[in-house]
Amino acid sequence: MTNTVASLSALILSIVLLVSGNAFLMTLLGVRLSLESVSPDIIGWILVCYSIGFVLGTLYVHRIISRVGHIRAFAAFAAMAAACTLLYPMAVSEPLWAVLRAISGFSVASVLVVIESWFSSRATNTNRATLFAIYQIVFYSSAAGGQLLINVGEPSSFVPFSLAAVLLTVALIPLALTRMQAPNVESHGRLSFFTLARESFSGVSGALICGVMIGAFYAMGPVYATMVGLDVSRVSTFMASAIVAAMVLAWPLGRLCDLFDRRWVLYWVALTAATASALVVFVGADRLWLLMLLVGIFTGLSAALYPIAVAITNDRMESHRIVAASATLLLSYGVGSVIGPIVMAKLVAVLGPEGLFVGSTIFLILLAASTRYRIVSTPDIPVDQQEHFVPAMPESSTALAEIDPRNEDFHELQETSAADQPSSTEPR
Q: 389 and 255 share a domain?
């Protein structure tokens, strides 16, 4: 296992640099647009373009990689993301920034597909869970650390944008110099929304609402913090603490999912997150420690909605359909991440900064209500027949779903099928 991790060190370093730079930039843009006195409504439309580009990237980048290869695709898209970053401070134009966000989202999604495909190619049934955990820890730690970089330079200057561009560019170096053999790229199918919703409505709705929550918070969280009067250093701590909370709460909630009916866990997580969100409306920034605590609970529980939704869905899937179901859940999350910033930005424009958490509370209550209805109206999987819970990441591609430890049977089936195929050198 140590040799496998060492062989992936170039990938891990590229992930750290890429995710840190991208997370830093996302917060920086929200703060900078607020300082430019752009209305929250317009900010939401600008920043949601990232989610649109990201969804399109996960859908179509496989075609590009299959033509030019992993390293060339990685270099091209990382360079594109860095170029977009340098263009932001050159012209503070709302339409231009919207286009740049869409290009950035497509580029980052493409780069993640390359990285996650490499991780997937190194996964075996003996190391799958460990690699899955390593990727998640590196990803969330880098995203949290990236938030703290906003203290480097004034957001109104070009310096922080240049730093973000440097991180995205330097992320090219480890992977460009790697000697690892590029894996094959496979484009997996997906189940339709309606087909998957008939089999696991709670899973699809949980993924959708998680996208709404996380997409809205990443886009409008820095705007909220700026509007309530937090200075730049506290904005970075505000965002970083939320990401750390998501990482810390993942494993305890996973334990609960293994011990109890998962739809009840989804219900109580949504209801508790809604309560924390509602309390934020009344607390404001007067008691910063309490604000940080409530926001941490809200974001940590909201981020957990996706892995719980995946677990609920996978309990109802045959092993050979898990990757296809994961692709649909990721798309559902992506749709939610487009809806969230638009709706919450409008609420912030009408209600003030509290609108972010008013809207979040409403969405979470709707999820809790629909889940409760499904619990009452449809039978659930007995606890002793549930698959082992594995925290899943929504900020990823279908390539990462392939190293989900629950897919061991799927990979064994693939290997058996491949072994049964005649060799190209055998007579036909």
A: yes
Q: Are residues 318 and 219 in the same domain?
A: yes
CATH number of the domain enclosing 167: 1.20.1250.20
Domain around 58:
9-180
Burial of 138 (0-12, 13-18, 19+ CB in 10 A): middle
Q: Which of 205, 414, 214 is nearest to 313 (CA)?
A: 205
Dump the DSSP string for 256-303. Answer: HHHHS-HHHHHHHHHHHHHHHHHHHHHHTTSSHHHHHHHHHHHHHHHH
In this prediction, residue 3 carries a pLDDT of 60
Reference 78, options 117, 116, 49, 106; nearest CA is 106
Looking at residue 336, its pLDDT comes to 92
Residues 113 and 235 occupy one common structural domain: no
Residue 412 counted as domain residue: no
- How far apart CA 51 and CA 251 sit, in angstroms, is 27
Q: Would residue 170 count as lying in a domain? A: yes
Would you place residue 372 in the very low, low, confident or very high pLDDT band (cuts 50, 70, 90)? very high
Q: What is the mean pLDDT of the chain?
A: 82
| Residue 416: predicted pLDDT | 47
- What is the per-residue pLDDT for 164? 93
- Look at the chain and report how many structural domains it folds into: 2
One-letter amino acid at 266 equals L
Q: Say how far apart CA 361 and CA 359 lie, in whole Å.
A: 5
Domain boundary pick from 180, 214, 240: 180
Q: What is the mean pLDDT of the segment spanning 345-368?
A: 94
Cβ count near 350 (within 10 Å): 11
> Can you read off the two tokens belonging to residue 21?
């730079």
> Do 60 and 149 lie in a common domain?
yes
Higher pLDDT, 321 or 192: 192
